[in-house]
Design goal:
single chain, 503 residues, alpha/beta, eight-stranded mixed sheet, six-stranded antiparallel beta barrel
Length: 503
């Protein structure tokens, strides 16, 4: 190439760069491309080079939106959010310049919505007053405060041994049909007088199960402070993927107003499967168990948004209870280990315990709470220490006693105490305990008052005891609820009441 031609080339290149830099942001955002191909809910767009990840594009003439998921050199891939028979190759696609989100307000309380905020309960769409993005950054370290307030579930075995604090992320894990959703619903029902807003996110569940959940919450009067985000199994993979992010976006709206929120993701196993389906459609390279390489990141960026904010940021909190379903009690599988490593502990439900009639089937050996002890009420913390020890000794001795023909009196006494503690921790579904009820049951079991009661009669005796205390000992109930600590007066009064009842 001669010097003259080289100069011409450089001049032309400089002119084109000037033209590119002078193009206004407005013109860039109003750029229009076209659909090169459309398969299985994925559109490949050509001609739009200014798009960003997670941006929303509009398919003109169809009323459908699509979510940008892949940015390649020449082609952009996006997932269609509202399927339409009008979508065909060659249709123009326009950039909206916006990210996906929904307009949230107090009007969402008591409603059932889809991940885009559209109503699913047959009523008018709830009016929003603030736009909350599905994808947003988690609160930074300086805006957080350590978890220090209890989040009572009303389930004795959890509140005593695996306590949860406001702002914590506690995993509920176990095989199918072991009572995972029941624990989550009991936790929601127990928030009736706890100044807590609840968000229940249903991912890829049967429509019949969703209807049962909503009916249970309505019967308990819990829908008044609950929002249900539903992406049933009949919905698209992209809807199922977006549901937990919609749930946490709604939760953040209330947290930023200084309120406390409990959000339940039921369940993240199906969420990971939906993301795997999306990724395979987008032709991303598969990794272990065909999940994409960033399957850990989708859950970590979701659960990190649960937090307890400090006073400067309104003191609000989001407590997250994600649910994971295991296969044959295998907690070492890919997705379970991922989520265990993200959360602050796990409540493990053992199918063998469930089948043995121990409900809730919480396994105290594998279950753990990494921060809940510092957020536990003083009276329960004081009473639950010996319960853990009694249970640990019982399960250890039970295994050995099967091979021993003759046991000494001390061993027999420990086995009897352990059996009574196990029976006392049994609890009926949708019957969460109040703080005073938990204190009475724990005191009865740990102090040996139930040792002389027949094992099969323990649950009946406890129910009768609680009814008697509620009817005749209002002063004791009031002092426990007010003090929330084990004073000498409360201990003496509980001893007196329980011994009188059992004698």
């Amino acid at each position: 190439m001669t010097q003259k031609n080289m100069d011409k080339f450089i001049t032309a290149l400089e002119d084109s760069l000037k033209n590119l830099s002078s193009t206004s942001e407005e013109n860039l955002s109003e750029g229009v491309g076209y659909i090169e191909s459309y398969n299985d809910g994925v559109i490949n767009i050509k001609g739009l080079h200014t798009l960003k990840m997670s941006e929303v594009v509009e398919i003109e003439g169809t009323g459908s939106l699509a979510l940008v998921m892949n940015l390649d050199k020449d082609v952009t891939s996006a997932l269609v959010l509202q399927k339409s028979s009008k979508i065909t190759e060659g249709l123009p696609v326009k950039s909206t310049g916006e990210f996906l989100g929904l307009n949230v307000s107090e009007a969402f309380l008591g409603r059932v919505v889809d991940p885009l905020g559209n109503p699913l309960d047959g009523k008018d769409a709830p009016k929003g007053d603030k736009f909350m993005r599905h994808e947003d950054s988690a609160p930074d370290v300086m805006s957080r405060k350590s978890v220090h307030e209890p989040m009572m579930t009303g389930i004795l075995s959890i509140d005593s041994m695996i306590p949860i604090g406001r702002g914590q992320r506690e995993l509920i894990i176990g095989d199918r049909q072991t009572g995972k959703t029941s624990i989550a619903l009991d936790a929601i029902i127990n928030q009736a007088d706890q100044d807590m807003i609840c968000v229940y996110v249903s991912v890829a569940q049967r429509e019949g199960k969703n209807a049962q959940v909503i009916e249970t919450l309505k019967k308990a009067g819990a829908m008044d402070y609950t929002i249900v985000v539903s992406a049933p199994s009949s919905s698209s993979a992209v809807n199922q993927f977006l549901a937990p992010y919609a749930g946490v976006a709604i939760s953040e709206y209330f947290m930023q107003k200084g309120k406390h929120v409990l959000v339940i993701y039921d369940d993240l196993s199906k969420h990971a499967v939906a993301y795997r389906e999306m990724s395979l459609l987008l032709r991303r390279p598969p990794g272990r168990e065909a999940y994409p390489g960033d399957v850990f990141f989708i859950h970590s960026r979701l659960l990190e948004r649960a937090a307890k904010l400090n006073e400067d940021n309104g003191s609000g909190s989001i407590t997250a209870l994600p649910i994971i379903e295991t296969q044959a009690n295998d907690v070492s599988a890919y997705i379970p280990t991922n989520v265990i490593s993200i959360t602050d502990g796990q409540i493990y439900l053992q199918s063998d315990l469930f089948n043995a009639g121990i409900r809730p089937a919480v396994d105290p050996g594998i279950s753990v709470s990494r921060v809940g002890g510092s957020a536990q009420t003083k009276i329960i913390k004081k009473l639950s220490g010996s319960v853990k020890l009694d249970l640990a000794q019982y399960y250890e001795l039970k295994a050995f006693s099967q091979f021993a023909s003759d046991l000494d009196d001390a061993t027999k006494a420990r086995l009897i105490r352990g059996e009574r503690v196990v029976e006392s921790l049994k609890q009926r579904e949708s019957r969460p305990y109040k703080l005073w009820q938990q204190a009475i049951v724990l005191w009865s079991a740990s102090k040996g008052y139930l040792d002389k009661v027949e094992r099969t009669q323990v649950t009946t005796k406890i129910a009768e005891l609680l009814a008697s205390v509620e009817a005749n000992e209002s002063a004791l109930v009031k002092s426990i609820m007010t003090e929330q600590a084990l004073t000498d007066e409360i201990a003496q009064k509980m001893d007196e009441v329980i011994s009188n009842f059992l004698n």
